[in-house]
From TrEMBL:
This is Glutathione S-transferase. The keyword Heme does not apply. It holds the Pfam family GST_C. InterPro entries: Glutathione-S-Trfase_C-like (IPR010987), Glutathione-S-Trfase_C_sf (IPR036282), Glutathione_S-Trfase (IPR040079), Glutathione_S-Trfase_N (IPR004045), GST_C (IPR004046), Thioredoxin-like_sf (IPR036249). The lineage of its organism: Bacteria, Pseudomonadati, Pseudomonadota, Alphaproteobacteria, Caulobacterales. Its EC number is 2.5.1.18. It comes from Caulobacter ginsengisoli. PROSITE patterns: GST_CTER (PS50405), GST_NTER (PS50404).
Length: 203
């Protein structure tokens, strides 16, 4: 078994690093800003984005797909419910919700803050993105009011996935009035293998 992860901290590849650590899987890390230009990355990801993974030679991209695959392929770790279980539907629900109702807006802001060339950035999108992301974040905050973890109230790959977006939003200053979500990010960062370092994803 061999795993290669193309990554750059603190991008969304750090989700994959965390689950690899939770699963105790050895992996080769191809890391750094030069990764984006590598033909090996282009051979995996059609847009040369991170994260990208090879598992026994097989290419996989998208952090949700990679994290879910790794949890699925190591069921003994108990980090995900099997396909067909209700808890699995809840995992899919929170991953899809995070991507469409939160992360899309965070990423659009990031693109206009520092990813796009300066002359293409449109700062006018920030407030609209923040308002949209906050609706999704408030829903998460409400869900976490009386539970510690998202699915079956025990730590799972769902928390690794969604938690990244929550830490990112906190770093962007969008969680000030969402105490349950802030407490959740602190619980995540208190876990020994968490890769969402407080010095990078701090408030
Ligand atoms: N939905 C993708 C996002 C992939 C993505 O946009 N990754 C960023 C880093 S967080 C990237 O590679 N950006 C380079 C670019 O946009 O060209 C995932 O979750 O894996």
């Amino acid at each position: 078994m061999s795993i290669t992860l193309y990554e750059l901290q603190p991008t969304r590849s750090t989700r994959v690093r965390w689950i690899l650590l939770e699963l105790g899987l050895p992996y080769e890390s191809i890391e750094g800003p030069d990764v984006f230009a590598m033909p090996e990355l282009a051979a995996i990801h059609p847009l040369s984005k991170l994260p990208a993974l090879r598992d026994d030679g097989r290419p996989l991209f998208e952090s949700a797909a990679i994290c879910t695959w790794l949890a699925d392929s190591h069921p003994e770790a108990g980090l995900i419910a099997p396909s067909g279980a209700w808890a699995r539907a809840l995992h899919d629900q929170w991953v899809a919700f995070t991507l469409s109702e939160i992360e899309a807006f965070l990423w659009h802001t990031a693109r206009n803050l520092f990813v796009l060339p300066e002359e293409e950035r449109v700062p006018a999108v920030y407030p609209q993105n923040e308002a949209a992301a906050k609706r999704g974040l408030a829903a998460l905050d409400a869900h976490l009011r009386d539970r510690e973890w998202l699915v079956e109230d025990r730590f799972s790959v769902t928390d690794i996935f969604v938690g990244y977006a929550a830490c990112w939003a906190r770093w962007l200053g969008m969680t000030a009035d969402l105490p349950h979500l802030v407490a959740y990010t602190e619980r995540l960062q208190a876990r020994p293998l968490c890769t969402y370092r407080p010095d990078v994803f701090g408030p």
